[in-house]
Amino acid sequence: MEFVRLTLTITLIMLAPAGNLVKTGLDSVPEYKKLFEAKRIGIITNHTAYNHNGRYILDVFRNIPNAKVTTLFSPEHGIFGSRQAGEAIEDKTDTYYNLPVYSLYGKTHKPTEEMLKDVDVLVFDVQDIGARFYTYISTMSLAMEAAAECGKRFVVLDRPNPINGLKVEGNILEPNFVSFVGMHPLPVRHGMTIGELATMLNEQGWLKNGVRADLVVVPMTDWRRSMWYDQTGLAFIKPSPNIDGLQTAAVYPGLCLLEGTNVSEGRGTEMPFRQFGAPWIHSKPLTTRLNQLNLPGLRFSPTGFTPLISKYEGQKCHGVKVIITDRDLLEPYYSGILIVNELFRMYPGSFQWKARHFDHLSGTSSIRKAIITGSSLERLRKDWQAELKSFLEIRKKYLMYAE
Predict the structure, then answer these.
(1) Enclosing domain of residue 235
(2) What is the pTM of this model?
(3) What is the predicted pLDDT for the residue at 6?
């Protein structure tokens, strides 16, 4: 483990662009040391928790007088971010730091009172991706509930929204479709940082039974809402195995919908979420149809691939490659809906729904039903706007950073 972290630290320093611009919440921990002095610290974290100098979070906290890190907690994908989506994570011991690591993606998704018995302050530092169904948001939400119920302070070390903090897109999650891939009334692309989300969940009373955590958000410095991650000066660490770069993160809020179908979303290939297909698809006709949609900021080209894991493992798939032509024009979520619609229409005998998962990702069953019945998707999108407008009014209260 020591070798893995040392290698990653060296790599981060080499990859970080010259003239770092943004400092994350972790960089500001020394300025907030009074929160942690003479306290027992529990940390919910993973492999993304490095500061701009390539120092891991536990090494940063070691320099705080009388602060003692007693416990680690792991979200989905594990403490090293290497486990695949949906794979249960077991409790373990970090042998390098000699600390217990409790899984929050295994037998329980919420810290128990027993797990928190040696914790005074619970810290959250995990890089989010900017999409409602990315489970790190749910992990944070449940941990905030646990901290509130057990009387522990909760501290979020803020990090950038990698796909910028301006664009907001999608329908609001409906109460009947609450799950671990969406627990709160957010649109799919929320345009907020993890710290802003934490404040919103807390102040809006959206945690279970309306509990409120003793919450502190340690902000970033020099981050602007208009920034994409590659404009921050920070090295990109893929937050999960199949978010392998910023282009993948940019299309993920829409292409992730393919998880709720029998079409491969490219997991187990070198281009997850930036290519998709199945053995029964014909690449050229699909490419033509998708390009005729003139989706903002996107073009498509024919491709083939053989997934090493997940759907159609070891089978040749035919499909399309996703090409981003202008990321600032992207409407990834609605584009994803239109892509699913074309697949349904072109391959009615082969296309299949994983209906429950698709609806949980969408936060509604209305999208799937509209596709099945051939109803207007544009009209459906217009129907979202009133709720989306209400959300934007709520969201304004919690934005911490300027454009």
Answers:
(1) 2-239
(2) 0.94
(3) 46
